[in-house]
């Protein structure tokens, strides 16, 4: 999949499948970009302010995204 199309597909998958669950716990996520097959995101709200939860949240996001976009290798939180 072309990079621009993959980025748009990631944004759509995040909006539909990840964001609702994060919002229930007071968190938000912003797609910052793609670096190859690494999706870069910013965790906002309660998800971004709890250092011990960041890795667990990222793991859950990766797992959910791979169901819809197996071409994503990794999800990385950036500031």
Provide the CATH top-level class: Alpha Beta
By helix and strand content, what is the structural category?
A: alpha+beta
Cα-atom Rg, whole angstroms? 12 Å
Beta-strand share of residues = 25-35%
The major sheet is characterized as: 3 strands, mixed
Terminal residue distance: 27 Å
Number of domain units = 1
What order do the strands of the largest sheet run in, or round the barrel if closed? 1-2-3
* CATH architecture call: 2-Layer Sandwich
Low-confidence stretches: none
Q: What is the mean pLDDT?
A: 88
Report the helical percentage: 40-55%
CATH-assigned homologous superfamily: Fe-S cluster assembly (FSCA)
Query: What is the H-and-E element order?
Result: HEEHE
With helices defined by DSSP (H or I, 4 residues minimum), what is the helix count?
2
Show the helix and strand layout.
Layout: H1 3-24, E1 27-35, E2 38-45, H2 51-68, E3 74-77
Parallel strand pairs: 2-3
Antiparallel strand pairs: 1-2
Helix pairs in contact: 1-2
Descriptive overview:
The chain has 79 residues and is an alpha+beta fold. The protein has one domain: Fe-S cluster assembly (FSCA) (GMP Synthetase, Chain A, domain 3), CATH 3.30.300. Helices cover 51% and strands 27% of the residues. It has a three-stranded mixed β-sheet with strand order 1-2-3, covered by helices on one side. Helix 2 links the parallel strand 2 and strand 3. Helix 1 crosses helix 2.
């Amino acid at each position: 999949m072309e990079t621009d199309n993959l980025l748009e597909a990631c944004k759509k998958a995040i909006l539909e499948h990840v964001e609702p669950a994060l919002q229930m716990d007071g968190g938000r996520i912003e797609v910052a970009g793609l670096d190859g097959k690494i999706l870069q995101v910013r965790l906002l709200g309660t998800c971004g302010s709890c250092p011990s939860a960041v890795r667990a949240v990222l793991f859950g996001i990766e797992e959910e995204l791979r169901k819809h976009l197996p071409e994503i290798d990794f999800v990385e939180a950036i500031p």
